[in-house]
Amino acid sequence: MSRFSRRNFLQFAATALGSVGVNHLLLQQQAHRYGKVLAQTTSRKLALLVGINQYSSQPLSGCLNDVELQRQLLIHRFGFNPKDIYVLADDKASREGILGAFEEYLIKQAKPGDVVVYHYSGHGSRIFDPNPIIREAANADEQLNGTFVPSDSTLPPGYPNAEGAVNDIMGHTLYLLMSALPTENVTVVLDSCFSGGATRDGQVRSRAGGKNVLVSPLEKSYQEQWLSRLQMSPEAFVRGYRTGVAKGVVLAATSPRQLAREVNINGFHAGIFSYLLTQYLWQQDSTVEEAIAKIVPEIPRRLKQTPGYEVKPGTNYQTQPAYFLNPETATADAVITEVSGNNVSLWLGGANLDEVGSETIFTQINGSGKVIVRSRDGILGQGYAEGVVSPGMLLRQASN
Prior knowledge:
The protein is α/β, with parallel strands linked by helices. Helices cover 25% and strands 25% of the residues. The chain has 9 helices and 20 strands. It has helices at residues 6-13, 24-34, 63-76, 95-107, 171-180, 217-229, 234-243, 272-283, 288-295, and strands spanning 45-51, 85-89, 115-121, 124-128, 144-148, 164-166, 169-170, 185-191, 203-204, 210-215, 249-252, 261-265, 268-271, 308-311, 334-340, 343-347, 361-364, 370-377, 380-386, 394-397. Strands 2-1-3-8-11-14 form a 6-stranded mixed beta sheet, sandwiched between helices. Helix 5 (171-180) runs parallel beside helix 6.
């Protein structure tokens, strides 16, 4: 698939960019378990992963699974230390929680040359801004700006007949936050959509918006604070925002005005974009351009969902390895996450789930260990081991 055209991306940036609980003890255990195996190399790798299922209205089912898909991939294929992956789930992913985490865990900790990943799975929306920073050519929607919807953002009382402000975070704000990152090695993954509707082909990640849903004064004030911190004039911001993304690469679940869907994939609920992206990167060493080209034909045409990407203007980041990293491990179908005697737990991130059932065999990559599956629950497998196996060991499905 070719890159978005500039015109399409400007439209996308005004919408898609704005639609930008893992147990703490488990994270500590995994950090200890994998710390030595997945030691950092020349740069630190930081990730902020946001997933929201529990909205007060229109709850979703697959956003936390998207986060775990991304987390497992980053740890086991790209060498992230679990301690450097910060997860915001459900009520923790409030407006204050998201903005605070981006500042504390990405902007303040990253250094030049570090790798930064920001992932958002949740509702997107489009809201009215009476004084937009950017006005495009006159059209019916010229004052509707794309947002992503924190867990504490609700529609105003009396909507759609009455108007009021919401706690959404705008694309303008994400642009400023990305601008503040001190590294160019930035990947933003957005799995949400920007217009309302429902379909029999899965849940849609879109909250209602429109002329009666207003940007909050708090949001405008926050943007002004960042313009001051960055010593960026409003004119410079407008020029930069119209040109393209601030840093690195943005991967989006849809093209402009399309709906992003989450689906049931053999008993596992997830955003179809997040699932296909992470599954492909388990199986292939890939550039951004190659990954998107592979994913697009895998989405059924009836869903009318076309993922895309955009890179910082003047760069060739689309030809760089995904996440600006060469994977630290071999391609794989599964990874062992726990071992108790001969009993093992598997994460089947790269496997084709419809092919995995009782007695499916996975073999160790570059070794003699073997795992025979007893049962599968979504993307998690339980089995028994033959030979010496350990947590973090990568596996491939044996051919029949």
